[in-house]
């Protein structure tokens, strides 16, 4: 299988804003590889460095040292983002646009030809079940609908890699189920999905492999089935053991 | 990179992204009510002034033209500064910048796209304002000097290019759009009213302070050069084409320099506020 995401010895430090304070180490020597067609869960408690790593992959944050590449292209090059789709944790889109206009705008950025553009817009709107609301302004949408707009924009370029930052965060059970169904469908299509989530039951159901990050360091990287077999418990308990959680009795 | 999708290999960072971003800015302007309110105010105030007759003065049309052009200048600055000042902070605050920059868009393209959108939006607003002014003037003087209007609109638009670039630079330096807009208004109005007189002031101040005022005189963009209202009000005819071209080149250079500074500041900026 081809390597889609490659992270080598990644270190990200944020300088402190206060004089005399040490800089904050967000990611410390991270090494990671994600192969084509995998659904990869990127886990860790809040502040573990998941979003920072994703931000490096998306070119939002510069690495202090180390390197990261997507499809073999350095993530600092905008072209590295040509074949990816990204769904941020909190999705807000231009409220003065309707979904069709928003998708047309993003499709244009990907240089998708006009005829293909219309076909892609129809396809993603059907997938996220927003065909009936395509000409309504986004500001009139519910949170669940906005999350589906987020998925639609992430899929507009028919990406080979999807980076999803807590895609089911804040959704009702029905919304979560729909997102999970879409992820399963994408996996069947052979797409690579790299996603972070705190919903460990969901991760266990959907993911092939997971990495658990804690305090900026990679603690575990393994197949979900192997972890469950090794620790003899479900993924949630594996996670708690890996991050060193001690229940107070 | 290889892919079965034809558009993947055809990507080449070019004007496409810039025009796409600019298109969204223009859409925002015409979907917001700001421009329509300001246009209605220009029409309302000018028509009200036109219905009055002060002291049976025959040259009332000149006062009317003066008032209308003053409103057009003032409101075009309001549109330019307020539209531009909110662009990047709003993208950062609402996090719409994340899905956008997660696509193959460079930060330089983002800055230029925002500039172009605001500048083109100002151009559209100017066309509407000057069209009304032309109609008003033609109804009183029975002439429509198209070339004079072309020169005036062009120079006004070039001036707004500098103002938009200045407000864009302010929007990556100051976090709050309101403080950026206030500072921009003070700077722009200060230059328009006093910029041309600074060299004269410098002559009267001895020593280092005089040299400092001289330095400011040469450093600031001379926006007052683009104000040709007097030419239109008094029907002085066309501005010298050489001066017109020189002013246009000066505006392009100044705008380019300000956009370069904006990119330098923004390329390392955190995306969240």
Description:
Chain A is α/β, with parallel strands linked by helices and 249 residues long. Chain A has 8 helices and 10 strands. A 6-stranded mixed beta sheet of chain A has the order 6-7-8-3-9-10, sandwiched between helices. A 4-stranded antiparallel beta sheet of chain A has the order 2-1-4-5, covered by helices on one side. In chain A, helix 2 packs across helix 3 (114-127) and helix 3 crosses helix 4 (143-155). The longest helix of chain A has 16 residues, at 173-188. Chain B has 273 residues and is mostly helical. Chain B has one domain (14-266). In chain B, helix 4 (60-93) packs antiparallel against helix 6 (107-141). Classes of the chains: A alpha/beta (249), B mainly alpha (273). The A-B interface holds A 58-60, 62, 71-73, 78-84, 86-88, 90-94, 96-97, 101, 105-106, 108-113, 116, 150, 153-154, 157-158, 160, 163 and B 1, 3, 5-8, 10-11, 13, 16-17, 20, 23-24, 27-28, 31-32, 94-96, 98-106, 268, 271.
Radius of gyration of chain A: 19 Å
* Strand adjacency order, main sheet of chain A: 6-7-8-3-9-10
What percent of residues of chain A are in strands? 25-35%
H and E string of chain A: EEEHEEEHHHEHEHEEHH
Strand content of chain B: under 5%
Q: Structural class, judged by helices and strands of chain B? A: mainly alpha
Count of strand segments of chain B: 0
Shape of chain A: globular
Kindly report the greatest chain-chain contact and the residue count on each side. Answer: A-B, 41 and 32 residues
Based on Cα principal axes, name the global outline of chain B: globular
Backbone CA Rg of chain B: 21 Å
Helix content of chain B: over 70%
